[in-house]
Structure formats: C-alpha cells, structure tokens
TrEMBL record:
<feature type="binding site">
    <location>
        <position position="142"/>
    </location>
    <ligand>
        <name>S-adenosyl-L-methionine</name>
    </ligand>
</feature>
<keyword id="KW-0808">Transferase</keyword>
<comment type="similarity">
    <text>Belongs to the class I-like SAM-binding methyltransferase superfamily. RsmB/NOP family.</text>
</comment>
<dbReference type="GO" id="GO:0003723">
    <property type="term" value="F:RNA binding"/>
</dbReference>
<feature type="binding site">
    <location>
        <begin position="91"/>
        <end position="97"/>
    </location>
    <ligand>
        <name>S-adenosyl-L-methionine</name>
    </ligand>
</feature>
<dbReference type="GO" id="GO:0070475">
    <property type="term" value="P:rRNA base methylation"/>
</dbReference>
<feature type="active site" description="Nucleophile">
    <location>
        <position position="221"/>
    </location>
</feature>
<feature type="binding site">
    <location>
        <position position="162"/>
    </location>
    <ligand>
        <name>S-adenosyl-L-methionine</name>
    </ligand>
</feature>
<feature type="domain" description="SAM-dependent MTase RsmB/NOP-type">
    <location>
        <begin position="2"/>
        <end position="287"/>
    </location>
</feature>
<keyword id="KW-0694">RNA-binding</keyword>
<keyword id="KW-0489">Methyltransferase</keyword>
<protein>
    <submittedName>
        <fullName>25S rRNA (Cytosine-C(5))-methyltransferase NSUN5 isoform X5</fullName>
    </submittedName>
</protein>
<dbReference type="GO" id="GO:0005730">
    <property type="term" value="C:nucleolus"/>
</dbReference>
<dbReference type="GO" id="GO:0008173">
    <property type="term" value="F:RNA methyltransferase activity"/>
</dbReference>
<feature type="binding site">
    <location>
        <position position="115"/>
    </location>
    <ligand>
        <name>S-adenosyl-L-methionine</name>
    </ligand>
</feature>
<keyword id="KW-0949">S-adenosyl-L-methionine</keyword>
Length: 295
C-alpha cells in the first residue's frame, strides 16, 4: 500500500518560553523522559521523538514550553525584533508567534497584538497570560483599520503579518487526498484562494504605511503560489516606494521561494513532504537612508 503523508513519523518540536524558563533547564527536565536535541535553526527550539505527546506535560501546562512547529517558530525569529522596540503582531490569535516575539524581546519594549475575531481574542489573551508576556497589549481590532499615524502605531519598528490563509500547508489529514487538487487551485481558479490573496495583499500594503517600520515579515501556512510569491510580487513596487526591499530569511535554510520574481532566493519555503508542513516566509527591510531620522 502507498505510504501516506499523514502517517510519516515527524519529530515533535517544543519552544522553550525563555520568559519563564532557560533552555538548559528545560533540556535537563525533558531528558528525564525523552531524547532531546536542540534545533539548529531557531534558538530555544527543541526536537523530540515523533511519538512524544506533551499535551499534559507540567512544563506545557505552566507555560514554560510551547508545542510549536519548526516552521511556525521560524517566523518570529525571522523578524528579529530587538528588546525595547515597539512591535506589531497584525493578525495574532491564538498568539503563538506573539509570545515568541515577547521571548525574543526578553519581555522588554511593547508588542501590540491585533486580532479581529472576538472569540479568538480570548484565546490570544489566554496564551499571553500563560506565557507571562507582560509587554503585550491585546487590541481587538481590524488591522486594516489601524491608523499608522496614531501615537502607538507611529512608533512601531517591526511588523509580523501572519494573515488568514488557506492553511493548505498544515491540513495534514487532508493532504493524502487533496494534493492533486491543490495543483489545480494554483492555476488561480479557486474563488476562495483569490479572496484570501486579495486580503493578504491589502494587509501587506497596509503594513508598509507604518512610518517607523523597518522590518516586516509576511508568512502563511499555505503551499499556494497565489498566497505566497504572487502576493509578494504584487506589492514590490509599493514596497520600493516606501524604501522596503526583500531581504534573506534564514539564509542557511535550503528551500527557497518559487523563482517567479526577482529576489525569490530571499524567500523561504518549507516543504509539505520533506518538512511535514508547507510554510512560506518573506522579510522586507527598509533601507537605512529611508528610515525616519529619529530612529
Ligand atoms: N500568528 C498566529 C499564531 O501564530 O498563533 C496565527 C494567525 S492566523 C493565521 C490569522 C489570524 O488573523 C486569525 O486569528 C484571524 O481571525 C485574524 N484576522 C483575520 N483578518 C484580520 C484583520 N483584518 N485584522 C486582524 N486580524 C485578522
């Protein structure tokens, strides 16, 4: 019988929440029960054997470690916000990347976590509480309606934009059946994909209008070109008019964007089969001479 993608053994990853516990202590604790390896891409990310179930582990329950995939953990790491910065997580629930940002920033500075959906705001607040991320301010708002000139927004130096997407890179149980139709969707015929891509483009365009922004990460858990490279390609002229250009995302990672635009080698993809999930990450950096003087 054919081997199914959903049946392939995949390592489990946990991210140490360094706001609550240091990495070496977490390793010491976890190695009592499991074989633990440090990930070579993301600091604080640990790899455990495929069958590991940590849902009820005390370190998970008390927010010292988060069950977070490797590709998902690469996103906040790609933004590289500095402790003390003002940062915006534009579409943030359930908040896994928000609290990763807080850990990278050592709890210093400010993170505005914006979320449109009321129910999901509750999950976001619970994640923030569990992580002990005291520098996060949750905002129940439409990111597209945030005014970049408002006092808090005008200080924002880094934006993480992880908008709603098709989720085609994570729907593992459906993958075995749907791979051929994904290819069909990529012709651009799917109404749903086109609507998602239109929103993603609008959101990315809005991110460029934040006056102090110097780093913007755009990510999806989609395998579709229409939500990934095509969105990035369509905003390049606007990005350039604000002084932004594509910059390499985790350059040591081997799988890059599809070669359908200039700078595709800077984009990062993870592979559904090789990596067990299909993610996409793009990083825009504003040229130093195009940043506001006071920053
Ligand atoms: N970054 C999150 C994490 O890692 O935990 C996952 C974000 S999820 C892919 C996208 C989120 O964006 C959803 O919770 C959705 O409700 C929210 N969203 C969609 N449109 C939005 C908008 N216009 N403004 C703010 N949030 C929005």
């Amino acid at each position: 019988p054919q081997c199914k993608i959903s049946d392939m053994p995949k390592p489990r990853y946990v991210r140490v929440n360094t706001l609550k516990m240091d990495v070496e202590s977490a390793i010491l604790e976890l190695t009592k029960q499991y074989a633990v390896d440090k990930d070579d891409m993301v600091p604080g990310l640990l790899k455990l054997p495929p069958s590991t179930d940590l849902h009820k582990h005390p370190l998970v329950i008390n927010g010292s470690i988060f069950m977070q995939g490797r590709a998902s953990s690469m996103v906040a790491a790609a933004l590289e916000p500095k402790p003390g910065w003002w940062v915006l997580d534009a579409c943030s629930a359930p908040g896994n990347k928000t609290v990763h940002l807080a850990a990278i920033m050592k709890g210093k500075g400010k993170i505005i976590a914006c979320e449109l959906d009321k129910q999901r705001v509750k999950r976001l607040e619970a994640t923030v509480r569990l992580a002990g991320a005291t520098n996060v301010k949750v905002k129940h708002e439409d990111f597209l309606k945030l005014n970049p000139e408002e006092p808090c927004c005008s200080k924002i130096r880094a934006i993480l934009l992880d908008p709603s997407c098709s989720g085609s890179g994570t729907a593992i149980d459906r993958l075995d059946h749907l791979l051929p139709s994904y290819a069909a969707d990529d012709t651009g015929n799917s109404d749903r994909l086109m609507k998602l891509a239109a929103f993603q483009k609008k959101a990315l365009e809005h991110a460029f209008s934040f006056p102090a922004a110097e780093r913007i990460v755009y990510s999806t858990c989609s395998i579709h070109q229409i939500e990934n490279e095509d969105v990035v390609k369509s905003v390049l002229p606007l990005a350039a008019s604000h002084g932004f250009q594509l910059a390499p995302v985790h350059p040591q990672w081997p799988r890059r964007g599809l070669p359908v635009l200039d700078g595709s080698q800077h984009l990062l993809r993870t592979d559904l089969v090789e990596d067990g999930e299909g993610f996409f990450i793009a990083l825009f950096v504003r040229k130093a001479d195009k940043r506001p003087q006071e920053y």
